[in-house]
Design a protein that fits this description.
six-stranded mixed beta sheet; five-stranded mixed beta sheet; 18 strands; 32% helix; elongated; binds zinc ion
């Protein structure tokens, strides 16, 4: 079946999920998978709208290629499921039952099974005992590359999350979030509050790295007090629900300085700004993921900072903060309309300072569509 353009108006959530189920079944047939078993992770909410709690009690969607899907769910969780009988049946299990036996009964004589990457080992080991004839593979092989291609619902959700994160970035760039004399942890808490105020239901991270900490890409914001004339890298995001849908992630990085920076930093930032824009511009349909990484990386390397750019340029984003497609050397997957991913080059001079600029971008037939519009220029925040 054909995939709708990501810029089509969103359709009813149930129809969108039914279309995803049909794509998954097509893929299962192509890959000779008899049944898909989905527990924790993003595949389940993507297909059903229900996110399983990470409990020792098993929740699992049993999706046979040739039959109706059934959600096996602890009885005490069943009322939380927004059950749509057009998509799946419900099989609540009681405390005295063995849920992996319930799953085994639904699987029946099918043997070629694909299971969630995030399924707990304890559950998988029990399933292996309950279904001894099964051949197992990862559900990521079946669902991952389908889920990477966003439909109109998901594009709308990602754009809404991006707009909400942009509002926080604008407050940062505009000096509304005081930096000087405050700890990284305090600024991080402020950013988190603002992300929630802008509509995020969950904050995933709010990195604030100041001074030499700006050279550490995943710095944990701590007690360091931000001084005058320093570099501050802020990388933050959360998950935002649009309507009755599941949450989709935002992820943005902006770098600011608290006063006039030294000349070398200005030079580094110019290179980075140019490289980030070049990588976004390279993100057109048909371009291999690794080529987008290369488009930014070669400019950074040409300026002599190649060894200071120590991570891939980006990651897919959706229900999960990091998912397919990864924008990295060695990934030849060509971009298709609907691929959503970050573009986030960074340059880090250990012990001195660093900078990163990050936007979420969606590949469309009309070219790269940025979900983030917050200003990329270096902001001097003297507050
Ligand atoms: Zn980020
Ligand atoms: Zn990111
Ligand atoms: Zn720019």
């Amino acid at each position: 079946m054909s995939v709708a353009s990501p810029l089509d108006p969103p359709m009813d959530a149930c129809l969108a999920r039914a279309a995803r189920l049909a794509r998954v079944r097509d893929r299962m047939r192509e890959m000779d998978v008899d049944a898909l078993l989905l527990s924790l992770g993003a595949d389940l909410p993507w297909l059903t709208g229900y996110e399983a709690m990470p409990l020792e009690r098993l929740t699992m969607l049993v999706l046979p290629v040739d039959d109706q899907a059934t959600l096996v769910v602890p009885e005490l969780e069943a009322s939380r499921v927004d059950h749509d009988p057009r998509l799946f049946e419900m099989r609540p299990w009681a405390e005295h039952e063995q849920p992996t036996e319930v799953v085994a009964a639904l699987v029946g004589r099918r043997t070629r099974l694909a299971v969630s990457d995030r399924c707990w080992a304890s559950h998988l080991l029990e399933l292996e005992r309950s279904i001894p004839r099964a051949h197992w593979r990862s559900a990521r092989e079946v669902v991952g590359l389908l889920r990477a291609v966003k439909d109109a619902h998901e594009v709308a959700a990602l754009r809404a999350a991006g707009t909400a994160a942009d509002a926080v970035a604008a407050a940062l760039l505009g000096g509304e979030i005081a930096l000087i004399g405050r700890t990284e942890a305090e600024v991080s808490a402020d950013i988190s509050t603002r992300l929630r105020d802008e509509g995020h239901e969950r904050v995933n991270f709010a990195i604030v790295g100041s001074g030499p900490n700006s050279a550490s890409p995943h710095h944990e914001p701590g007690p360091r007090v931000i001084g005058r004339g320093e570099v501050v890298v802020c990388d933050f995001g959360g998950s935002l629900r649009l309507g009755d849908g599941v949450g989709y992630c935002s992820d943005i990085t902006r770098t600011v300085v608290t006063g006039e920076p030294e000349a070398e930093f200005l030079e580094l930032f110019e290179v980075l700004h140019f490289a980030q824009a070049a990588a976004v511009a390279a993100a057109v349909v048909g371009t291999p993921c690794e080529q987008v990484d290369h488009a930014g990386r070669e400019l950074i390397a040409a300026a002599g900072y190649g060894k200071s750019f120590i991570h891939r340029i980006g990651h897919g984003i959706g229900i999960e903060e990091h998912e397919d497609p990864y924008i990295v050397a060695g990934n030849p997957t060509p971009l298709v309309a609907g691929h959503a991913f970050s573009v986030e080059p960074g340059i880090y001079l250990n012990g001195r300072f660093g900078a990163r600029i990050e936007d979420v971008v969606i590949a469309t037939d009309d070219g790269p569509l940025a979900c983030n519009q917050a200003d990329h220029r270096l902001a001097v925040v003297e507050a």
